[in-house]
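Aggregate trends can hide what the representation actually does to any particular protein. In the encoding step, the backbone of a single protein was reduced to a row of integers, each denoting a local shape. The record that follows shows the chain in one-letter code together with its fold in token form.

***
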Amino acid sequence: MSQLKTIPAVDTTPTGRALPFLAGDGPREHTATKTVNVMLGPVGIGPLTSGKPTDLWATEDAAPTYDFEAIFDPKQVSRAAAEEHLRAQLAARGLHVDRFLDENAPCQVYPGWCVETGDHIDHGSQEFLIRSYREIAEPLVFAGIVHLSDSQPYVSLQNESLSPAQAREKAQQLRELADAMDAMAAKAEAAKARPMHGR
């Protein structure tokens, strides 16, 4: 999440305990509606750099279905308390929270293979990798499923976009390569076991 704008300080204690609020230049204007959605997730590693239980900011206009992003420190406040706190914070700005979206919620469109979480419009699977024995960043072979919002689902093989039919064709070729490599390994073992007689 990229922090863009923040909400001015508001003096309220919705959870019964004082929670610090952010000071800033205010969210972007909502001219068509006063109802907003908030993407909320726990902070990743360690406490928030501000030391506060929550942080909230307005998102870019390109955000698909939410208007604000927020994070909370689960060591300081529960998710329910964070939602209550943020709801009151936005209400003081005349904004009603319609939904809190869970940043860590699994994909609802492709729950069987998409590894993206939270609110997203592009989908991707975990990549199948064959790593090199050499210490290089690029694996020997990598493949995965991709479905971008502006395209049809496809299989990505070495960053080449394949239709399902093309992917099956390449899969057959890779099976043939695997069989050939097994045969090569057997021949190499046999050659290694033979004594060498001059050159």
The beta strands are 5-6, 35-42, 54-58, 68-72, 96-102, 123-124, 128-130, 141-147, 154-157, 160-162.
